[in-house]
Amino acid sequence: MSFEHLRDGLGIGVPSPRLTWRLPQGGRAQEAYELELTRGGRVERTGRVAGRDQVLVAWPGAPLTSRERVTVRVRVWTNDAAAPSDWSGPRVVEAGLLDAADWHAVPVGAAWDEDPEADRRPARVRKDFHLDRPVTRARLYITAHGLYEAEINGRRVGDETLAPGWTVYPHRLRYRTHDVTGHLTEGANTIGAWLGDGWYRGKYGFDGGTRNIYGTDQSLIAQLEVTYEDGTTASFATDATWSAAPGPILTSGLYEGETFDARLHDPGWATPPGAGAGDWAPVRAGSRDLDTLVAPTSPPVRCTEEIAPVEVTRTGDDRHLLDFGQNLVGRLRVTLDGPAGAAVTLRHAEVLEEGELATRPLREAYATDTLILSGRGPLTWEPRFTLHGFRYAEVSGWPAALTADMVTARVYHTDMRRTGWFECSDPLVNRLHENVVWSMRGNFVDIPTDCPQRDERLGWTGDIQVFAPTAGFLYDCAGMLDSWLTDVGLEQLPDGTIPWYVPVIPGEPMWTPIHPGAAWGDVATLTPWTLHQRFGDLDLLRRHYPMAKKWVDLVEGLAGPTRLWDTGFQLGDWLDPAAPPDDPAAGRTDRHLVATAYFAHSARHLALTAAALGNDADAERYGALADEVAEAFRHRYVLPSGRMTSDSPTAYAVALAFGLLTPLQRQPAGDRLAELVVEDDAHIATGFVGTPLICDALTDTGHLDIAYRLLLQTGCPSWLYTVTMGATTIWERWDSLRPDGSLNPGGMTSFNHYALGAVADWLHRVVGGITATAPGYRKITFRPRPGGGITSARTRHETPYGTVSISWEQTATGLTADVVVPEGCEATAELPGCPPVALGPGEHVLDTAKLATKAA
Fold first, then answer.
1. What is the pLDDT of residues 786-822, one digit of tens each?
2. For residue 175, what are the CA distances in angstroms to 183, 220, 407, 512?
3. Taking the model in full, what pTM does it have?
4. Of the listed 151, 350, 732, 798, which one is catalytic?
5. List 382, 456, 491, 823, catalytic entry
6. Is 679 one of the annotated active-site residues of the chain?
7. What are phi and psi of 401, to 5 degrees?
8. Residue 456 appears among annotated catalytic residues
9. Do residues 34 and 47 lie in contact, with contact meaning Cβ atoms separated by under 8 Å?
């Protein structure tokens, strides 16, 4: 049993959380279910409810009230069992604070004067309190203006980092609920929190960044609620009685890094009875619209892996260069001893240039952490309020010999559940897929970012729009992306314009003021639909429908009666490899061809969304609009000869993949696309728009062999070129690192950018052979299409219903495949040269030679 898209029901912010369960093994198909709720000592049962629903099923009882705990169980009747199943294991869901009236905490922070335009030393805040009776339950509801890390009696609360994450703070600030019963003791207690600037008031963005985007205060908002054994309660909330003092963190920034002076740190600062080192003074209490506090819908950012350096090289001037063998996002944890006042500096970069850290691609993100030693013995330290994108680190000032066991790279990202795996007989393709996974991990840090290392790290709408199908296969990202899409809707302009990136921050002169742009703005229509298809969440589709409709209505107005979106600023096929380094939008494809194609595509998906929601009038209206735009597209951009006005791979790919051509035009367009790829010796010639589409466009027009040639090309530019150059993540540019080992001279040269890795969706569906043909994978098609010399592949995905997988291998007589269909689902196998085969839940072994003989 799970609640909404959360693994843990503690502190849920939905009064009526939807329920999901998986059928018992061998259950095959559910005919009915019964839910049991235990609340306040009462047991409530639904009785037998007929139906197949088992994913995001409506809450069966009265809505939760704030702080209420309910234990939930389910049992099911399946079509092959006369009696119901056993009851599932009990799962507890507990509501957070669901109403602003539940809060009485106020923001508290340092009261000393600060220069809002300078680096500011972060504060710590604390409060002593007394518990005179044994405690049976304690909850901490906590958030901040900025970032926080809490302690109670010297013990850290939770394991998340960069909390509370980044949302459109004026409208939504997340709080998290922690069970801190085990942190408390009868008698004297202390609660405290480290504070950091983060996105709230830190310097963030382009060209030197902007400070104080959301405010100048750095404040904690916390409410500790205690229930005693006798049933009475007490609450200790942030208010004017708390104290603040400068902490041992001297400076901290997401781009800049962190400086920590261990001489100023007393480990007992958050323990009773003393106040620890520092000059503690009354806090300044602020204000907050408590209606804007919301519970999270996805896991927080956590450390998910630790990596030791694979090589440590000492330079002639006593620096150490560390290679972790993997481009990652995180920070270093070091263990060392040395004299008081000695400074150890840690610098980070993704690649090397002439044996040194290549820091130019970082632009103004200095990515430098500094530890000043206390001289009081061995110390283990890690920064708190920063993250870096790096494979290499340079350590200077280390007081003795440095060995690999003294430094660990800790990997951080939103702690989503992994749900998708792929591997095949080609090791280069496997490494490509691993690179996609690592780029997703590095860029799903609370929001879906473009890159994790330079002075940017923004929620670019176009990047996730093209990558969402891949993301939805690899990880359970529905809750995270649903939250981010909520912020997209909040940032949508009154006229319907979708910003280039969300949350919005200053971006003059190119990105501010905001203009509507195709492919980026279409995240409003396409990404909710993708999430609905992958996770079966119709309510998600319903929540974001107004945003999608406003976007399409805006573009309809911009296009006017011609139905051609042929005016305004557009990025086109961004980062086409033919574009010059200083003008990534100057690709081979007419930008307004791309814009009109996306107009048709979004209108079509809005019609599909309306139909799924039962809005027949809108479905008819936007379906007709999509037809009109497609016809206008053909008249403007398809020549009588069948070629397109932009004779480029992206032009043909979007026309084919978006269904904009007539049946008579499709095959000539596919043939011309194949010709262009072959003429270029199967080097990639597409950017952010064309790259996710080109392999499907080739495959669907009978050119699977050319799609494989494109996939397996190793020359520059190509997907596997990056692999042969040692890439361990997806690059922003096809030639971020050039064949001679030099860096691309462009100002945008990231080595961790997931957009061009959207080809992994094709790997999963076409090479691997798994396609969802009904929302949430309720229906599945197994259709592997081998080619390119790849002789086997294994693909697995954890659907909402359970595990779906296929493992196929070519044999002397054809192809064999082991497939697994989840309980409650149905599938069709379409293997090469064989008629379709219907499959029920369970494991099946298929052999094309036998199937073909049987069909004959």
1. 999 999 999 999 999 999 999 999 999 999 999 999 9
2. 19, 11, 33, 30
3. 0.97
4. 732
5. 456
6. no
7. -65, 140
8. yes
9. yes
